[in-house]
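go over my protein:
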Amino acid sequence: MTPPRDTASDQRLAAGLVLIGIGSVQCGSALATTLFDDLGPAGAVLVRTAFAAIVLVAIWRPARRTLDRETVRSIALFGVVLAGMNLCFFLALDRLPLGIAVTLEFTGPLAVALLGSRTRTDVLWALLAALGILLFAPDIGDGLDPVGVAFAFAAAFFWALYILLATRVGRGPAGLGGLSFAMVIAAVVLIPAGLHDGGGELLEPALLAAGLAVALLSSVIPYAAELVALRRLRPSTFGVLLSLEPAVAALIGAIALSQALDGRQLVAILLVVAASAGALRSAPVSAPEV
């Protein structure tokens, strides 16, 4: 990767691209919820993943000579993890407000950052994040669906694995083409669940068009924006900006989906954002990047 540049204009451009990527992801998630009535969560995630795979493969394909046995094994595992992460998140999104689902899911990259740093300050960040999560506890079963919470934490687990595997695949001989092929594998893995939920509705042109929009907003635009930004930002700065995602999700959920959150829930989200920003800021460069 090209070393990050230090000019102020480059830094501003990169920060703006990261924020565009974050907003795009959450707008895509909000749009995806409108497909749940017709396609179900699994049908919606299948359409999104399939379209994302088509677009990404058209942009990045690995050279055949780079696909040795170990690389193919890593790509296949990465694809399964991608499928699990996206399916669990959409199942959580079907039962929880967008801001809360994203906040709970964000404990995955937060855990990776904390385990990769191990400084005394990280204890503070871990306690701050734990306090934020605990503030959601009284609502579980009384406003927050316990199954949705379980799916959100499952998505967090898969996101942590995603970070570790993305580092391995992205730095491997297949490069970004390996990430594209992993998306294809994820789409194949999701076919049974997607067909079960979506059925014949998966062939409806209007729903397919919405699915394509979700894929562009949730995958293609953010990937492109983040790739350009990472050439200009240090990993720690990128991590801090990315930690704004739960707050942006809560804002978009309130505006686009009328998912207003109470004061305690907003405080919980802000605590997790603060913990994530602190942990990712202090994480060593050698740690796996989000």
